[in-house]
Amino acid sequence: MAMEVGSAGVEAVAMETEHKGPLPQPSGGRGVTWRRCRLEMTAARLEARKETKERRAGENAKKRKVKRSDDGKKRGSSNARQSSTIFLFFLHNSIVAYEKTELVIIAEAQGTVVGVNYGMLGDNLPSPAQVVSLFESRGIGRLRLFHPDAAALAALRGSGIEVVLGTLNEELPGLAADPSAAEKWVAANVAPFAGSVRFRYINAGNEVVPGDTAGNVLPAMRNLAAAVRAAGLRIPVTTSVATTALGVSYPPSQGAFSEAAAGVMTPIAAFLRSTSAPLLVNVYPYFSYAGNPGEVALDYALFRAAGVVVRDGALGYDNLFDAMVDSVHAALEKAGAAEVEVVVSETGWPSGGGGLGATVENAAAYVNNLVAHVRKVGGTPRKPGNATETYLFAMFNENQKPAGTERHFGLFHPNMTEIYHVNFQP
Asked: What does the pLDDT look like over 319-349, one tens digit per residue?
């Protein structure tokens, strides 16, 4: 997260892939009950067929007047009991496995839109195993790692949590220049975990565009995507940018990449379109408000406006988050990639640090209103229908980040107690 304040109108912003799209979503907890009933009815039918088969076998045996010794009868009885025990054991395990699968699907259906960034810039943070347990206990189904961490990836094995895995920015030159470097990166950081960790995206660098090394991003993305395919995996490869990549952001329909970014972002957008991968964007209404308090109303930034604040043609905006996301949609359209989805890879509000509006009350309002909004509204005015996949920044306050508000974006203290409560369950 960068802290430069943009100046493109009131929307000016100042800020720091396995399968695509959510799994099928059953309706609440009823799915497990319904499927269990169906399995139990199937079990009853199978048991009835088994009894019928045994009865007919017995009748046929009588007709053939086959004599069996007492030992044979004992063996037959024992084998039948054994067979029945194995059958019932298999059936029980099938029901349990099915229910566990359904519970995972239901948990994802309930919390799939919102994930949380797991940053590690602190010397007092809990262990990765504790962090993963905290994600699970709060029903958080998606997690973003800024770089590969073996302990974190090991802790995520079998959790069902979907993972956005980033590369370090300093790795990009090597990944861009040498396809074998990308193959080694995938072999070391993805392939060993792919059987038990659910990778959602791989993002090549964070907020590199625009900048002196921005030219490395697309070649690195291409090499990583080829390495993922060569490993027999299907994980979308993308990158993460800040809204400072926009030269115009207000009104949202006029959103366009800046002159400095357009030369890189246009081919990146074309690559994402060709691979059906989304663009990850870090969206911080907080910095837009803090940098322009005279023009950006606090209630507009906190999802508390009483009605439409910004009218953009036929579209109306009652919150800054949607307006910022739609300015990126408009920029992608102008770059010839209207089909590319926008995933909000970071967003949050500081609970302290001395910045304007950086209070626990405002942070709690922003995050909870955001979670409720992206779940219920289903998209933005420009792109209605699909909920905006969003990752909160961040899980913990991190004491090794720069002093000030950057140390206060966490949902939890390092001791895993809440800074404020977030309702992740619908």
From this structure: 999 999 999 999 999 999 999 999 999 999 9
**Is position 207 annotated as part of the catalytic site?**
yes
Q: Which of 16, 102, 207, 406 is catalytic?
A: 207
Residues 371-416 have pLDDT tens digits of 999 998 889 999 999 899 999 999 999 999 999 999 999 999 999 9
Q: Which amino acid is at 234?
A: R
Q: Same structural domain for residues 172 and 303?
A: yes
* Distance in angstroms (rounded) separating the CA atoms of residues 130 and 70: 60
Structural domain boundaries enclosing 308: 9-22+112-408
Nearest Cα to 235, choosing from 190, 196, 292, 266? 190
Residue closest to 411 by CA, chosen among 398, 399, 423, 397: 397
The number of distinct structural domains making up the chain is: 2
User: Looking at 105, 131, 166, which one is the last position of a domain?
Assistant: 105
Co-location of 188 and 59 in the same domain: no
Catalytic residue among 171, 346, 398, 406: 346
Q: Are residues 246 and 350 in the same domain?
A: yes
**Judging by DSSP bridges, how do beta strands 342-347 and 390-392 pair with one another?**
parallel
Do 147 and 188 form a contact (C-beta atoms < 8 A)? no
**pTM reported for the whole predicted model:** 0.78
> Any catalytic annotation for residue 346?
yes
